[in-house]
UniProtKB/TrEMBL annotation, chain A:
SUPFAM superfamilies: ClpP/crotonase. This is Acetyl-coenzyme A carboxylase carboxyl transferase subunit alpha. Acetyl-CoA carboxylase is a heterohexamer composed of biotin carboxyl carrier protein (AccB), biotin carboxylase (AccC) and two subunits each of ACCase subunit alpha (AccA) and ACCase subunit beta (AccD). It holds the Pfam family ACCA. HAMAP family: AcetylCoA_CT_alpha (MF_00823). The gene is accA.
From TrEMBL, chain B:
GO terms for cellular component: acetate CoA-transferase complex. Its main location: cytoplasm. This is Acetyl-coenzyme A carboxylase carboxyl transferase subunit beta. It is an enzyme of class 2 (transferase). Component of the acetyl coenzyme A carboxylase (ACC) complex. Biotin carboxylase (BC) catalyzes the carboxylation of biotin on its carrier protein (BCCP) and then the CO(2) group is transferred by the transcarboxylase to acetyl-CoA to form malonyl-CoA.
Length: 317, 298
């Protein structure tokens, strides 16, 4: 069963009719619905193309959070061979909100780090809906440090509403863990390529998204605070999230224009969840190209390039 | 008023008897409710004399108090893009900037100065909380980067006094980008072999804590300061239960290993100087403000 977003009503109406006609044709072989079905399918495709060509920031937020959107695990399974997840921060515990490990990417040894949101109730709880605690960031730090020593490029796949706001997380130094993770990203002498798959939620995202190259999927969002959070602080009214989403400029297109990201990865019409294979392959191609471009740089140069890239952001606006 | 005139103006202002606050202002201690005359409060470095409660200290007063004889060279505020998002909520961001500039006589939240503390040269960076809650945007980020670059050029330590609600939402993603930008600056100083000390003041939260405020070689905190990543309200809404007593205060962070020491405002300059002299392998300052040694605990 497909989950439709509120603005997809015209599409859901048409696809509902198509579904009914198909059922009818199955029940009664004498009725020929094929012509009507193909006519409706064409209309549904047109409606989808039209709607998705002009999604506003709030609609993109909904697509980015779509429950059927491909998550870290889908990318990890499709893009990497021998993906070997590693667990624990060696200090306190394991945090499954952040997945990190070793893998082969198109033949090359790499380290992979990213947030996993989960796809059903059980896995969502296991992964804490993709909101990491300090242990998650400290695991990321550990894996980045190891990647640096072994000369493995790092691929990060970002998808989080934000770092987890909880008592334990605060007590164990959530802020420090994020700061150290960002610092590790900036200091290692191997290339880092980051892709925001869905939500790039503030400090919880930047902690693993400080890469030499940073990309976003077409309908992903990346923001200093969630639209709801911004609305509740700026207007004291979280229902104005739509307005906040627009004003804060959180879409891939916005961030490209502001010079914060390097590129946008096209999604299939109707969003990544309509054709996960296509978007995952496209993401892999972009990562491969970026890693190829960075491979000629020495360790010192790759680090200097990353630092310079971030220092330059906002200087020419 | 620009930054060069700012250098000499405070003295002229005080000679002319110009006051930022009305003569008859009394201030209430948030802890005990005691009323304190503003002059007495200022003279006691914004610490309530009876209760010892540390009020927020204006950035200018902080620099003046820190540096020997109140003398320092203010670092220029770098020119940056204003309102790149053309942002407005209930008010235009440009109007908020105008209001804050009028209120604080500062270009943005960061004030930085180069001077001597107990004879030791250092760069100090202070957030003015009254400027949009000390929030971190492009202007603050760039001022911080430049201050670190200056410390490196001067081969001297940098001391940071954060007081901030976190990232400046009116600058959206560009405010988030100040986290990695300032972190680059911190690391350039560290690689130059120079110390970086953070003195956490009330409040230090959000994106500021998640970057330069938690990356010091040494973390000091003023008593009773609120220091956190996520605010209490957000946490309560998430977990729907009461928070532990003293949660997210300096003392709580000391207990949880996130700061090295809680230091009263009056002791900060001497503690900084003593610590930095050891780190930089400089002899103890025998003259003027000889500091009482701290007895080892236990």
């Amino acid at each position: 069963m497909h989950n439709y977003l509120d603005f997809e009503k015209p599409i859901s109406d048409l696809e509902g009719k198509i579904h009914e006609l198909k059922k009818l044709a199955q029940e009664d072989q004498s009725i020929d619905t094929s012509e009507e079905i193909s006519r409706l399918e064409a209309r549904a495709r047109d409606a989808m193309r039209e709607i998705y060509a002009q999604l506003n920031a709030w609609q993109k937020t909904q697509v980015a959070r779509h429950p059927q959107r491909p998550h870290f695990v889908d990318y990890a399974n499709a893009l990497f061979d021998d993906f070997t997840p590693l667990a624990g921060d060696r200090r306190f515990g394991e945090d499954a909100a952040i997945q990190a490990g070793l893998a082969r990417f198109r033949g090359q040894s790499v380290a992979v780090i990213g947030q996993e949101k989960g796809h059903d109730t059980k896995s969502r709880i296991l992964h804490n809906f993709g909101s990491a605690r300090p242990e998650g960031y400290r695991k990321a730090i550990r894996v980045m440090e190891m990647a640096d020593r072994f000369g493995l490029p790092v691929v990060t796949l970002v998808d989080t509403a934000g770092a987890y706001p909880g008592v334990g997380a605060e007590e164990r130094g959530q802020a420090e863990a994020i700061a150290r993770s960002t610092e590790m990203c900036l200091n290692i002498r191997v290339p880092i390529v980051s892709v925001v798959l869905g939500e790039g939620g503030s400090g919880g995202a930047i902690a693993i998204a400080t890469g030499n190259r940073v990309y976003m999927l077409e309908h992903a969002i990346y923001s200093v605070i969630s639209p709801e959070g911004a609305a509740s602080i700026l207007w004291r009214d979280s229902t104005r999230a739509k307005e906040a989403a627009t004003n804060m400029r959180i879409t891939a297109e916005d961030l490209k224009a502001l010079g914060v990201i390097d590129g946008i990865i096209k999604e299939p019409v109707g969003g990544a969840h309509r054709d996960p294979e296509q978007v995952i392959t496209a993401t892999g191609d972009v990562i491969a190209k970026a890693l190829g471009d960075l491979s000629s740089l020495s360790g010192d140069a790759v680090r200097a390039e990353r630092r310079q890239k971030f220092l330059s952001i906002g200087r020419n606006l | 008023m620009n930054w060069i005139t700012n250098y000499v103006r405070p003295r002229i202002n005080s000679m002319l008897g110009r006051r930022d606050v009305p003569e008859n202002l009394w201030i209430k201690c948030p802890e005990t409710g005691e009323m304190v005359f503003h002059k007495d409060l200022e003279e006691n470095k914004w610490v309530i004399p009876a209760s010892g409660y540390h009020m927020k200290m204006p950035a200018k007063a902080r620099l003046k108090d820190l540096f020997d004889g109140g003398i320092y060279e203010p670092l220029a505020q770098p020119k940056v893009a204003q309102d790149p998002l053309k942002f407005r909520d209930s008010k235009k961001y440009t109007d908020r900037l105008k209001d804050s500039r009028a209120k604080t006589e500062q270009e943005d939240t960061i004030l930085a100065g180069l001077g001597k503390v107990d004879g030791l040269k250092l760069v100090a960076v202070v957030h003015e909380f009254n400027f949009m809650g000390g929030s971190l945007g492009i202007a603050a980020g760039e001022a911080i980067v430049k201050a670190f670059e200056r410390a490196i050029a001067e081969k001297c330590p940098l001391v940071m006094f954060p007081a901030s609600g976190g990232a400046r939402m009116q600058e959206g993603i560009l405010s988030l980008m100040q986290l990695p930008r300032t972190t680059v600056a911190v690391n350039m100083l560290k690689e130059a072999g120079l110390p970086y000390i953070v003195v956490l003041t009330n409040p230090t939260t959000g994106g500021v804590t998640a970057s330069y405020a938690m990356l010091g070689d040494i973390h000091m905190a003023e008593p009773g300061a609120e220091i956190c990543f996520a605010g209490k309200r957000v946490i309560e809404q998430t977990i729907r239960e009461k928070l532990p007593e003293g949660f997210q205060t300096s003392e709580y962070l000391l207990e949880h290993g996130m700061v090295d020491m809680v230091v009263k405002r009056h002791d900060i300059p001497s503690t900084l100087a003593r610590t930095l002299r050891i780190l930089m392998k400089k002899p103890a300052n025998q003259t003027a403000n000889a500091v009482q040694p701290i007895a080892a605990a236990g």
